[in-house]
Amino acid sequence: MSQISLTFPDGNARSYNPGVTPAEVAESISKSLAKKAISATVNGRHWDLQWPIDADSTININTMQDDTQALELIRHDLAHIMARAVQEIWPEVRVTIGPVIEKGWYYDFDRKEPFTPEDLGAIEAKMKEIINRRDPVTTEIWERDRAIAYYQANNEPYKVELINAIPGDEPLRMYWHGHWQDLCRGPHLQHTGQVPADAFKLMSVAGAYWRGDSTRPMLQRIYGVAFKNRNDLKAYLTFLEEAEKRDHRKLGREMDLFHMQEEAPGQVFWHPNGWSIYTTLQDYMRRKQRAGGYHEINTPQVVDRKLWEASGHWDKYQHHMFIVEVDESRDGENDDAAIKDKAQTRINALKPMNCPCHVQVFNQGLKSYRDLPLRLAEFGSCARFEPSGALHGIMRVRGFTQDDAHIFCTEDQIQEECARFIDFLADIYRELGFPDFEIRFATRPEKRVGTEESWDYVENALENAIKAVGRDYVLEPGDGAFYGPKLDFYLTDAIGRVWQCGTFQVDPNLPERLGASYIAPNGEKTRPFMLHRACLGSFERFIGILIEEHAGKLPFWLAPRQVVVASIVSDADDYVHEVVAALRAKGVQAEADIRNEKINYKVREHSVGKVPVILACGMKEVEDRSVSLRRLGEKQTRVQTLEETVAALAAEATPPDLA
RNA sequence: GCUGCUGUAGCUCAGAGGUAGAGCACUCCCUUGGUAAGGGAGAGGUCGAGAGUUCGAUUCUCUCCAGCAGCACCA
């Protein structure tokens, strides 16, 4: 039998018998490597130490030093160890699937009684016990019939269903952890003792549909996180605490920005401080849009169903719309809704999107090709009946305002408009403190309208536009809207979370449905394309992102209360008012605090309230016409003249586009 | 929407089958204090809503509403 050649990372090659396993290869190199080995990488593929190699290959023996592989194996093994622990404690529980996810793993179980927090503790203890048993992990490939018979005999219906879903030509691999066994594509560690017993934690239990399908049974999913060592686990738990501290719902209350209440679920009551952020941001966007060649418009909130039928929303989106019935015979005199006159009832819907209304504006009067591209922008207030479980603070709401715009243009203007938008967006994101963003390019989905030629042309235009502005992108094949391809723009925040904010979508469909047209150079009525685009997404969500990004310590120009001027003794009160007036005269949002409290108390309160600058004034400052300036998060104070302070803070309060 | 958990003062949270408590915040008084909580007093709650069990329910049961985590959703 001819030998096979295995090439190591250093370029050296050695000959082995066909069918040699990485475990044997490691053994042939050194005993210590064999012991330390956790898996191999064979021809770039993550490979179990027990899997045979049949042909010439490149090979690397992985150890715990190889982070990517080590973490994957640790987490994957823990998924199995957890499933085993659960079945050892509750043999009647049925197992399903347990994949590795970011930071850890989960496993879905079918069990009648809910898992309690105490159960999680018991499972964790049992897992540690299993790890300490150091059971060898072994694997075999089984015939499909044998595997199905095995699982039927063991009353594991979910496993049977899984096997039936695996394509027929794929081998079925079984893994044993000691006597416990699971269907798994691997790879796994050599023995359970290789899993660090002190670097994992079960986090939570939650419902999850079997195979992600809301018509299938609801299972119980237990989430765990795992790392290579105790310190990494600790660091991750600290990160979670950090994220919790940044929670915009908590900060929104502490900073007195907004509240929500059950009479208006998913809608925001903005307080003065929060509304100040909102309007500052909106003013900024309005200036940017004007400079960017957009025309701002405003369109109705409540619109007759006829328009939604024409646009297609009534068919496809109705269950997400707030529907309003009005009995027009009442004429405002009869307040009893129960005696509505059906014949006179008119059905309206709150607009969930602005696009149909924007087409109405476009449709007024005859448009010439000379009018294109026509960029119509609206801070459009929309209402969507989001499922209750989707609501989340001000990030996912039922009433919100988009920084929306629709660009009406010809097909050959798409590319330039797209490139122009990316530049426009990049400028805004940079000024708002997000210099890096990711573009995802979503192409034609399976269910779509329009010809292949048209999709070819439009997808090409978008791709060329991204290249023209010199940016990278991630391709997401099949993720486009049914009417056209789109670009989505993702921001990464200070603690690594990713948010989709901007979007750019090409739509030939809605102009068609709503009969938009312009007169082309050849004198014929022609359909324009419509480009949907947004930068922030919604003000509500974007402000939530800003709050969490900055942990409440907003950039000075966005801060609702930029300066608090606090008296140290009451004899300085008059001077405090003078300082506040001087700041306000220069456009700085300043407030006086002359309460009968010690300066310590005032400093603490305004620090908790995330006021960026506190100016303290005692008798010394009164005499010198100075202020003692303290910045949020800093301990030291600086005494400066009133004049220079006002000038400096006024400059700092200037929005980035005006600076 | 689904599964699980939660709902007590403005906030954070105790508590019990016989209609309630703490700390902070709030009001008043004392204190004029130099950079993250000075002291004292006071006021404040239909215990998420409705129904049932009970002599009696805020506490037990059911339904609903809202919130939280996850899933599904985000055309």
UniProtKB/TrEMBL annotation:
Q: Where is the TGS domain?
A: 1-63
TM ranges are none
The residues covered by the Aminoacyl-transfer RNA synthetases class-II family profile domain are 247-555
Single GO MF descriptor: metal ion binding
Q: Name one GO cellular component term.
A: cytoplasm
Q: Which InterPro entries match?
A: aa-tRNA-synt_IIb, aa-tRNA-synth_II, aa-tRNA-synth_II/BPL/LPL, Anticodon-bd, Anticodon-bd_dom_sf, Beta-grasp_dom_sf, TGS, TGS-like
UniProt keyword annotations, A-Z:
Aminoacyl-tRNA synthetase, ATP-binding, Cytoplasm, Ligase, Metal-binding, Nucleotide-binding, Protein biosynthesis, RNA-binding, tRNA-binding, Zinc
Similarity comment: family membership = Belongs to the class-II aminoacyl-tRNA synthetase family.
What is the official name of this protein in its record?
Answer: Threonine--tRNA ligase
Q: Which source organism does the UniProt entry give?
A: Salinihabitans flavidus
Question: What gene name is given for the protein in this entry?
Answer: thrS
